[in-house]
Amino acid sequence: MSLLLIVLCAVAASAVPLADEVTPLDTSERCGYQSCTKTDPSVLNVHIVAHTHDDVGWLKTVDQYYFGSRNNIQKAGVQYILDSVVKELWEDPKRKFIYVETAFFWKWWVRQGDDVRHKVHTLVRQGRLQFVGGAWSMNDEAAAHYQSILDQFTWGLRKLNDTFGACGVPRVGWQIDPFGHSREFASLLAAMGYDGLFLGRIDYQDKALRLKHSTMEMVWRGDDDLGKSSDLFTGVLYNTYSPPPGFCFDVLCDDEPIVDDEHSPMYNVEQKLKLFISYVKEQSRRYRSNNVIVTMGGDFTYQEAGMWYHNLDKLIEYANLKSAKDGLNITLFYSTPDCYLKAVRDANPTLPIKQDDFFPYASDPTAYWTGYFTSRPTTKYFEREGNDFLQAMKHLQVLAKLPEHNMFVLNELKSAMGMMQHHDAVTGTEKQHVAHDYERILHEALEDSSIIAKQAFNKIVQRDGDKPPLFQYERCSFNESSCDLTERSDQFVVTLYNPLGWKVKYPVRVPVMEGTYTVYAPNGEAIDSQLVGIPDFVKNIPTRESNATHEVVFLAHLHPMGVKSFYVKREKKEKRESKMNDYYLHFNDYFKIGDNAKMVEFENNPMLKPVFKSNYEDNDLKTKEPGIGVNSEKSMNSMKPIDIDVLKDKDGDNLDIEELRRLVDERDRATGPKFPELSDEEMRMLSDEPVLVERDDETYLENEHLKLRFDSSGLLTHAMLPDITFNLAAQFYYWTGCVGNNTSPSERSSGAYIFRPKTTRPFDMKYRSVGNPKGNVVHEMWVESDKNVGSIARLYNGSKVFELDFVVGPIDVSDGEGKEYVIRYETNLLNNGIFYTDSNGRQTLKRVLNKRPQWNLTLEEPIAGNYYPITNEIYIEDNEVRVSILTDRSQGGGSLEEGAIEVMLHRRLLHDDAFGVGEALNETAKGAGLVMRGKHVLLFSNASENNDEFKAKTILELHLPPVVFVADAKHLQYEEWLTKDNCFKGLRRELPDGLHLLTLEPWREKQMLLRLENYKNKSNSSTIEIDLDSLFDFKLRGMQEVMLAANQEIRDKWYWNAETEFVDSFNKEFDSFAESVKAEDVEDVVDDGYRVKLRAKQIRTFIVNYE
C-alpha cells in the first residue's frame, strides 16, 4: 500500500499543468471549433480524420496493449502510437489527429518529460490534437449502468480538463465500436454538453435503409420526459471506422502506398485518385450536406504514423490539384469530428428523427450480437459490486471527513471501474487471460480502497479518527455464502453502510457454523434473527472456500446514508433457554417451540399447573422440564396437546391472563386423536438439524403482501396479491449453440458476441424440492435440477417483493455441445408480444416481438433477434397485472412467447464466433465449468395502480445495496460495545420521494461533487424541491451548477432542423393504433439559493463548497 501511495503521489505531482501551457500564447492559436478549416458551401468538403481505435483490453491486457508486449497475439503498442503521432504532428501544422481513450493517454502522459508535454500542450491549444469522447474508456452501451457510465466520463474528462483546460474539452461522442447503442447514453451525452455523437455499428438492415434514403444522420431524442434538452445530433459513419478500401497506409495493412514518381513502374497517383474520388462521391449521396467524413485509421493503427501522414499528405495534395484542374468541386483537408460537425451545422440540413434505440445489433442475417448481453456473468456481477463499493467509499470519504491522502486509493478504484466499462470488458467479449487481468485490477483496487471504510467505521464507533483502530474490519464473499471470520468467531460485529438517501430494510445473511446466535441492535435490543441452512448446491460451488453450514439472517433497518453496527453472539450450548426444536404439526406448517425456561414458567403458573401435572404425572421419563419437547412416544401419546401456535417464537411474553385462559380453552378442545402420528421423517424433524421437508402436496410462501404457491417438486405455480391471483412458473431451460466454420452466415457459431441457438425451443430440466425452511424472518423453497441448477425462492417477512436466488453450473459440455442457460417466467398474462426493458438502468423502452420501430424486419433468427439488453429490469403487463423482473447484473432476454419472460443467465460454448476473440467462451474454475450465483427480484402489481416510484426505489435498492463489513469482537464484550457509537446518520433527513442522491464525491479541498436525480416519470409529473443547506451536517459555503460530467459550466446546446415532430411518448406510440400526441416543450425550473428544483427525470450536478 505504501509503495502504491508513493508512486501515485509522484505521478500526481508531475501531472499538474502550468497555466501558460493551457492558455493560448497568441491570437493565432485556436482550439475547438475555432481551429477548424473553413469549408466552401459550393463544393464537396472531404474531412480526412486521422484516428486510432485503442481497446482498453481485448485480445491483450491493458498493460500488454500499452507496452506493446505479446505481439504474437496482436501487434499493438499504444505508447508507440502516441510517440509517433506527436512527432509527426509537430513536423507539419496542417496535420491533425484525434484521440479517444483517456486511460491510455493518461498512462502515456505521466511518463513524458517536459519537452514532450510542451509539444502536446501546443498541439492541443492549436486544435491539431483533439480529444473526442474523452471518457476513461469507450464504454459499452448494453451492459453498462448509467451511474458507471457517468462516473467514467467524469473521471476521464476531469483528467483532460485539469491538464489542458478548455482546449481539452471534447465536443463530440465517438462510439465507433460498441455493438449497439442505447437511448439513455444519448441522453447522458446531451446532458454532459456534447454537441454530437458518431456511431460505427448499427444493424445491417437499418443501415441499408438509411443509406438508401440518406438518413445516416439524424436528431436523436434521448429521453421523452426531458424533451428537447436531450436531443443530440447523431451520425452513422459510412465505413464503420475504417479507411476506404485500398487506403489503409498502416504498418498493419497491405494496401499499396501512393507512388508519385512518374518514372517508377509503381506510379499510381491517377489510379488512387480515381478510386478515392469515386468513393467519396458515392458516400456524399448518402448524406444531406456538402460534407463527408472519411475515417483514416483502425484498431491500434499509427504505431508508425509517418506512413499514414506521408501518404495522406499526397492524397490531399494531388486530389485538390486534380479537382482544381478538372473542375471536380471537391476539397480535401485534415479535419476532426468536431470540425465536421460544425460544417454540417453551418450547412443547416433538415434531418430525420429517432426516438428509440439501436438494439439489437446484427451484422448479417444470422449474426445477432445478443449473446454478450450475458457473457461472463461473474465478471458482470463483479463490476456491479465494484460500482456499489465505489459509491460507498466516495460517500464515506466526505461524510466521515477522512484525510485527503485517501484520494489516491479512491482514484485507483475510479480508474479500475472506468476500465470495466470498456466495450470488451463488462461485455465479456475479451480473451480469458484478459478477463482475469480485469478482475485482478478491480480486486486490488477494491482491497486498497477498503481502507476508507475501515477508517470511517473506526472513526465513527470511537468518535475519534486519531485513536488506534478498535476493529479490524474485513470484507466477505457473501455471494458464495462464505466468510472466514464469522465462521470461526463466537462474537463479531456486522457493520453496514447504506448508500441511498432513504431508510432501507436490508436482509443481512452472515455465513456461520451451526449453533444458536443472538443479534443485538445498537440500542442493545436482541432483534429477530433466523438460522437458515445453506443448500448443498451452494456449498458445492467449486470456488467456495468455506466451512459454513448456515447463515444467520436478520433485517437491518438502516438510516439514509447511514452506518449501523450489529453485535452477533453465539450462545453457549449449555444455555438451553434459546435452544429450539422443530415440530411438524400439519403437512403445510410447522412451528419452532422453545423447550426451555419459558415452559417451566408456564408449568409453575397457577392457571396452567393442573394442565401440566395431568399431562406429565405418568411420564416415566424423569425430567425437570415439561415433556413437550421430549422425543418420547409414551409422552407424546399421553399428553393432551396445547395449541402450539400461541407460543410460536414469543420468548415467554404471553403472560396476559386472558391469553392464558384462551390457551387452556384451546388445550381442552385439542383432544389427543387429532394429533397426527409421526413418521420416521417427521420424527427426524424433532432434532436440532435444519428442517428440510419434501411434501407431496402444494406449499406456500406468504406474508401480509404476497402469497406464492409451489407444487410437490418445489416449482412455483401461482402468485397471489390481495386482489388478484395469476399463474406464475419459474423454470430453467437451456439452448444448445450452433456450430459452424463461420465462413458464411449459415455457418455462424454461437460465441462470446453471438447468440445463435440450434433450435427454436429450449431443452427443459427435471426438478426436485430439497428444502423448505421457514421462520420469523424469511420463508424459503429450495429446488435442484438434474442439469446443475439450484434455486432458492425467498420471501422475507414484510416484503412486497419476492426474491429468486439461483446457482447455475458447472454447465456440462461433455457431450460436445455448448449450452446457454436461461430462466423463463411463464404467466397467463396477455401481453400481445409486448414487453419492456430498461436502457442502462434508467428509462424503459417498449419492445414488440418480431418488430422494429423504424423498418420492416426480416428475421432469420427468431430467438436471438428478439433478445434485448437488460441492465436492471424487464417486464410484461396486461390489463390486470404487471410482472417485473429485476436483475442483479446486466443480462439479455425478451418475451418470446405469450405471457412469458426469458432471461439468459449463463453461457458455456465450445466454438468461437469469428468476430475477433479467437477463442471459445469456455470459462472454467477449479477444474470445472464456471459456476455463477445470481438473484432476481420479482415485483408484481395491479395494472390499475401506478407503482413506478416504488419500482424505481426497489431497483435502486438492488443496484446499490448496503456495503457490509465484519470484524471480530472477541476483545470487546457486548456490554462495552453498547457504549460505542454504533449508529451514524449521514443525512439529517430522508430525501423526498422521487429524489436520488446519485453522486456524493470529494472534489477538491473543502469541495464535493453533488448530483441529484429525479427518478419520477413525466406521467407522475411532479417537480421535486429540496433545501441542500439543511441536508448535511456540514455548512455549505457556495455552489456552482455544472454540466452533467462536471467539466464545464452550463452552456447553450445546439438545436437542429427536424423533418418531423417528435411524439410525446415513444412507448405509447410504438405499435399502437392510438392517435399520435406531439411532444411539448419541458419548462425549466428556477431555484432559490440552496433550494433547488428538479423536473421529471432530470439530473443536476453541483460543485459545492463546504466546511
TrEMBL record:
Protein name: Alpha-mannosidase
Xref: PANTHER family: ALPHA-MANNOSIDASE (PTHR11607), LYSOSOMAL ALPHA-MANNOSIDASE (PTHR11607:SF3)
Higher taxonomy: Eukaryota, Metazoa, Ecdysozoa, Arthropoda, Hexapoda
Keyword vocabulary terms for this entry: Disulfide bond, Glycoprotein, Glycosidase, Hydrolase, Metal-binding, Signal, Zinc
Domain Glycoside hydrolase family 38 central per the UniProt entry, residue ranges: 367-442
Organism field: Leptidea sinapis
Signal peptide positions (record): 1-15
GO terms, molecular function: alpha-mannosidase activity; carbohydrate binding; metal ion binding
Note on how the cofactor is bound: Binds 1 zinc ion per subunit.
Entry EC number(s): 3.2.1.-
A GO BP annotation: mannose metabolic process
One Pfam family in the UniProt entry: Alpha-mann_mid
